[in-house]
């Protein structure tokens, strides 16, 4: 089966660092993705990990451990505009891109 | 602006009815994906088309169907609508069939009364 877990909500302060965790179980694995979604808007792609380790992209970094079924998204130097939902998703092994999304973590950045 | 367009933006209809949602992918993209997002279910992958052919299938109900036309635009048909079908329906596109970076359209908000 497939299952993805993320915390429902998190709160952090402007300028701080926050780590959003994601755990998953899947019978076939084809990469771990993070998307950002502001309220009422479409998701936008943030990062992709297929191998273990850390991928850094500006203020955002994403980590993957395939053996532990674990990933995290690290946001540094938080800004008010980072208040959004962060969706963890994995691709399923096989033909095409059959994504399974987690429930999302709603991050509130406070001044 | 992702370059993916969806129409209509909002749709209100009654139970039992049928609706068609339309999506135009970014210029040059061959794959189109459909997603449903509701408050209790989160973002659910429905179906993917690549260059006119069905490529991957997710949690799509039998009452729902989709197709991709030769000009690469896609339509999602929802029939025998139920209250629980009320949701945001997103279309996304990518260049090829196995891309991990998808570009989402603004969505169609469907309300079934």
Summarize the amount of helix of chain A as a percent range.
under 10%
> What does the largest sheet of chain A look like?
6 strands, mixed
Number of DSSP strands of chain B?
11
Report the order of strands and helices of chain B. Answer: EEEEEEEEEEE
Low-confidence stretches of chain A: none
The Cα radius of gyration of chain A reads: 14 Å
In one word, what is the shape of chain A? globular
Tally of DSSP β-strands of chain A: 11
Main pleated-sheet profile of chain B? 7 strands, mixed
Describe the global form of chain B: globular
Number of helices of chain B: 0
Contiguous low-pLDDT stretches of chain B (5 residues minimum) are: none
Q: What's the N-to-C terminus distance of chain B?
A: 31 Å
Q: Could you spell the SSE succession of chain A in H and E letters?
A: EEEEEEEEEEE
Structural class of chain B: mainly beta
Number of helical stretches of at least 4 residues of chain A: 0
Strand content of chain A: over 45%
Quick check: average pLDDT of chain A?
A: 90
State which percent range the strand residues of chain B make up. over 45%
Report how far the terminal alpha carbons of chain A are from each other. Answer: 41 Å
Helix content of chain B: under 10%
What does the model show?
With 111 residues, chain A is an all-beta fold. Chain A has strands spanning 3-5, 9-13, 18-25, 32-37, 44-49, 53-57, 60-65, 70-75, 84-91, 99-101, 105-110. Chain A is 0% helix and 56% strand. In chain A, strand 9 (84-91) and strand 10 form a beta hairpin. Chain B has no helices and 11 strands. Chain B starts with a strand and ends with a strand.
């Amino acid at each position: 089966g497939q299952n993805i877990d993320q915390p429902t909500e998190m709160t952090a302060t402007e300028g701080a660092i926050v780590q959003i965790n994601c755990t998953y179980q899947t019978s076939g694995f084809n990469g771990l993705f993070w998307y950002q979604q502001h309220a009422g808007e479409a998701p936008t792609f943030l990062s992709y990990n297929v191998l273990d380790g850390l991928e850094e992209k500006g203020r955002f970094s994403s980590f993957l451990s395939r053996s532990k079924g674990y990933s995290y998204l690290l946001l540094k130097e938080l800004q008010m505009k980072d208040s959004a939902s962060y969706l963890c998703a994995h691709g399923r092994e096989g033909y095409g891109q059959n994504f399974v999304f987690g429930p999302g973590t709603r991050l509130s950045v406070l001044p | 602006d992702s370059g993916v367009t969806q129409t209509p933006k909002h749709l209100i209809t009654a139970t039992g009815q049928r609706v068609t949602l339309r999506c135009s992918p970014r210029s040059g993209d061959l794959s189109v994906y459909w997603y449903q997002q509701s408050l209790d279910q989160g973002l659910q992958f429905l179906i993917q088309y690549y260059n006119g052919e069905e490529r991957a299938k997710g949690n799509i109900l039998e009452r729902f169907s989709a197709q991709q036309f030769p000009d690469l635009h896609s339509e999602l048909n929802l029939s025998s609508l139920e209250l629980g079908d009320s949701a945001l329906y997103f279309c996304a596109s990518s260049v090829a069939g196995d891309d991990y970076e998808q570009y989402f359209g603004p969505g169609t908000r469907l309300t079934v009364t």
